Amino acid sequence: MALTRREFIKFTGLGLAASSLGMLGFGAAGEAQAAAVRPFKLTHATETRNTCTYCSVACGLLIYSMGDRAKNAHSNIIHIEGDPDHPVNRGTLCPKGAALLDVVHAPTRLKVPRYRAAGATEFKEVSWDFALDRIARLMKDDRDENFVEKNAAGTTVNRWTSVGMLAASASSSETSYLTWKVVRSLGMVVFDNQARV
Amino acid sequence: MTNTWQDIKNANIVVVMGGNAAEAHPCGFKWVIEAKIENGAKLVVVDPRFTRTASVADYYAPIRPGTDIAFLNGVIRYLLEKDAIQHEYVRAYTNAGLIVKDGFSFQDGLFSGFNEEKQSYDKSSWDYELDDQGFAKSDDTWQDPRCVINLLKQHVSRYTPEMVSRICGTPQDKFLHVCELMASTAAPDKAMTSLFALGWTQHSVGSQNIRTMAMVQLLLGNIGVAGGGMNALRGHSNIQGLTDVGLLSNLMPGYMTLPQDKDTSLDVYMSTKLYKPLRPGQTSYWQNYRKFFVSFQKAMFGDAAKQENDWAYDWLPKLDIPLYDIIKAFDMMNNGQMTGYICQGFNPLQAFPDRGRSRRGLSKLKFLVTMDPLDTETSRFWQDFGPQNPAKSAEIQTEVFQLPCTCFAEENGSLVNSARWLQWHWKAADGPGEAKSDIWIMSGIFHRLRDMYRKEGGAFPDPLLNVTWNYTNPIDPDPEELAKEMNGRALTDLTDATTSAVTKAGTLLDGFAQLRDDGTTASGCWIFTGCFTEKGNQMARRDATDPREQGIAPNWAWAWPANRRILYNRASADPDGKPWNPSKPVISWNGARWVGVDVPDYGPTVKPSDGVGPFIMNAEGLGRLFARDQMVDGPFPEHYEPLESPVENVLHPKVRSNPVARVLASDRPTFGDVKSFPYVATTYRLTEHFHFWTKHALINAILQPEEFVEIGEALAKEKGIEQGGWVKVKSKRGEVVCKAYVTKRIKPLTVDGKPTHVIGVPLHWGFTGQARKGYGANSLTPPVGDANTQTPEFKAFLVDVEKTSAPVTA
């Protein structure tokens, strides 16, 4: 059976209707509605090309969002599937990639900066300015105290070992380059990423 | 990966050893199935567990965790004894015939130069005999007993099938059948691909595991060819990119290394980077190091990097020890030597070995910053979550900042996949609430610090005040501008010496061959030069055309280096330039230049008769069966037992484990022995989960909701453990209480005459997210690292297991 992509979506929609809605007793009307709703949703969605955030097969993705990117219209991601044009995954996704929508909208996605004071039992919500001002102050005070400009032999070593950083292996190369510049211009050498784990 | 994902389909033999691609890389693994269906390939799986990869294999052989080198050295012995090597390839393209210095030796488990006190090697004897011009001596007849191939033969002679079976627990007939299958690809037109992942890296001998297979592949003539290669299936979406850009303690972008204290000036530093060819006429491409380095300094510090200040060499941090890796960092925390730690998209409380050690370390910090889209365990290490995280908040004085970040779907940028492709992706929506990008956050910290240093002064602010930041929006730089900065530009009008073509000042460069060491070019990451040119963003290309459907797709995205898809592809053709496999040629010599489906990894017009070797990054131009001084634990691979092992090393009882493995003295008391912890454990991943992220996704949490360990039927019976019953698994460092999955997939092995049980420990659960709470596999694992990469030994350690009752709260 040869199906176009659009027909395939309809077809799988029907399968869903047969298995769940059908059982709930909606009968033929429910099936027809389910068949109509899904392609309708995607037609009105904005399609964005992306790459799966998990392993390094780097499957191509199509992300569908509501909202046309007009000023003040907030996009909401409603569906993620494999990109059939991608030469490696050819439209497929694995059990992790197929569930990406649930990680984008996870209830444990963080939405506000939070701060835990020394000895506290809970986080409290804070502003970005509070968080970044305080972090910068803590970093500068420690750097000024523990920075090693020259070693015993008098060589300029520009080294700071008392504050370290782990960089994110799901961040873009552009993010990582900017991170490198900030970290090294401070002299930081305790520096690693997930390459080892 | 030396090759591409799709190129796997060109293989005749696919070996999956040190990985489980069907479950961990399912959409890449489809190319293995393609190889089986379309190319008649045989899939061979060697693994402690009968994985889903094994379930579709043509041949499966079990192996005890941590004994892969014994197995593969046995393969090398078999290939040499049966003379099942690709002779012409080995003669022309490897260092088999080069002569090794007289001082080099191997005895009782140690290579020459071992220093007992420092637990390290003086590697000066691990090199070639040089002639008076400084070139390596060779014997093309392989008669000299000191030539590499003869020393290798001698080295692996101990790895007989009996010995392999005794160490690995693999039955001899199974081992020999795997040897036969591998040997079939010694034919010039046959190829074997090696697919591996953390199953090889996460050992105290991790790098040598991989090297041993690379040597097998060189002997079989399988490097550089279609369907061949060494293919590391990397685990995170941009772990390749972060390594390429050098986000590791001792690295700079493009695999340059950060200077050490002994490199007291740029000249001293450069004197260690000359890479003089070791054979006449060789390329030794790292000779261009200075061009890459100076161009990097120009990108980093702009006009402030000048000839007069040695291109701001002093502003780079210098290392007083080889590197500050994660094992060292948490040791420093525990010793009170660290004040602060920033975790960007990284959850070390789940990811690092010996969770208790990590928790104690974090508790001693003055401050911890986490930047993550998700509510990680690390950001809540100070909170009491019961037995899974027994913290006493009031006693922990660490200030914690939990910063909300955008995720992949909410940003533009590029990721480097396992096959070195830089693929651009686009933002689909804003992040939730006040979540911000890592670029915005890092910029925010940077500007605040720079302003404070401008106002208040302070310790050596020069690099911070002079680092380039010429972005249109300095508080939230555009990823395209950062990509262009990594690609690089001409800083003045450049005239090409041969063609006289002029590249105008400000022009984006097309390739790293344009880089110069006189300050007239800038490039933030030389291997990426060509990714974003005047023709536009090459990483965003979407032409999937694939000539001859060979699995190259040269116009899809952009691959480093120079959009080359198969590394060392000069070796796909014979010394005269004719493809070894005429039905799947990669490049060939047409009488005037190299042509084919891929960009030549070679001078495009270098004649075959010039005798330039295909391994152009190596000073001798050849593939190395003898690694010289490039590995810290020996120029040949040797079997060492894991730090925690159930048996003695039968080859050399006095040197049981890797003598130069990454082990800190303070951690030695945390290692257990076989008397108290009689079972071998190995960690692994499930196909339904990605590390510690997907437990935050509802569907995945439903699919695999709770922590378990996998125990073979024989051991379960012995210990009275029922299917789905509760067990307590203990190591010297901690314990996990969870359900038992009693399975036929792990069977006891006979190791040195004794039955050895293996327990599988999946690692996905913690105490945040949608899944049930778990203790985490890293409650058990030892803080031991590979000698070369410091990668923790998660794949082989010792535990005990006992039946227990269900926890009261469950």
TrEMBL record, chain A:
Residues 45-108 form the 4Fe-4S Mo/W bis-MGD-type domain. Keywords: 4Fe-4S, Iron, Iron-sulfur, Metal-binding, Molybdenum, Oxidoreductase, Signal. InterPro entries: Mopterin_OxRdtase_4Fe-4S_dom, MopterinOxRdtase_cofactor_BS, TAT_signal. PROSITE patterns: 4FE4S_MOW_BIS_MGD, MOLYBDOPTERIN_PROK_1, TAT. GO terms for molecular function: 4 iron, 4 sulfur cluster binding; electron transfer activity; molybdenum ion binding; oxidoreductase activity. GO terms for cellular component: cell envelope. Belongs to the prokaryotic molybdopterin-containing oxidoreductase family. This is Molybdopterin oxidoreductase. It comes from Dyella solisilvae.
Automatic annotation (TrEMBL), chain B:
GO terms for molecular function: 4 iron, 4 sulfur cluster binding; electron transfer activity; formate dehydrogenase (cytochrome-c-553) activity; formate dehydrogenase (NAD+) activity; molybdenum ion binding; molybdopterin cofactor binding. Residues 680-797 form the Molybdopterin dinucleotide-binding domain. Its main location: periplasm. Transmembrane segments: none annotated. Signal peptide: none annotated. InterPro entries: Asp_de-COase-like_dom_sf, Formate-DH-alph_fdnG, MoPterin_dinucl-bd_dom, Mopterin_OxRdtase. The keyword Iron applies. GO terms for biological process: anaerobic respiration. One of its GO terms (cellular component) is periplasmic space. Its cofactor is [4Fe-4S] cluster. Pfam families: Molybdopterin, Molydop_binding. It is found in: Periplasm. Residues 1-374 form the Molybdopterin oxidoreductase domain. Keywords: 4Fe-4S, Iron, Iron-sulfur, Metal-binding, Oxidoreductase, Periplasm, Selenocysteine, Signal. Belongs to the prokaryotic molybdopterin-containing oxidoreductase family. This is Formate dehydrogenase-N subunit alpha. It comes from Dyella solisilvae.
